Amino acid sequence: MSGDIINLNKARKAKAKRESQSGAKSNRMKFGRGKAEIMAEKRDAERATRTLEQHRLERAPGEPD
After folding, report:
1. Whole-structure pTM value
2. Cα 13 from Cα 19, distance rounded (Å)
3. DSSP state letter for 65
4. What ranges make up the beta strands (E) of 1-65?
5. What is the CA 6 to chain-centroid distance, rounded?
6. Nearest 10 degrees: CA dihedral of 31, 34, 36, 40?
7. Element (H, E) at 7
8. At 55, is the secondary structure helix, strand, or coil?
9. What is the 3-state secondary structure (H, E, C) of 23-41?
10. Residue range 12-62, pLDDT digits in tens
11. The pLDDT value given to residue 65
12. Domain ranges of the chain
């Protein structure tokens, strides 16, 4: 009926390490891109916006240009 004995300090530190590693992984995905990749993504987004604007039939009254 007795459970396993664990060291609470080690468990706490292990949990903090796991959380830190998951945060680091997300940051690598978010910020770990080169300048060329960032510029290409920006260029593609601008191209998509420009194409969408060119295909718009009419502007709504009061809509900014």
Report:
1. 0.42
2. 10
3. -
4. none
5. 36
6. -30
7. none
8. coil
9. HHHHHHHHHCCCHHHHHHH
10. 999 999 989 988 888 888 888 888 988 999 999 999 999 998 888 877 677
11. 63
12. 9-54
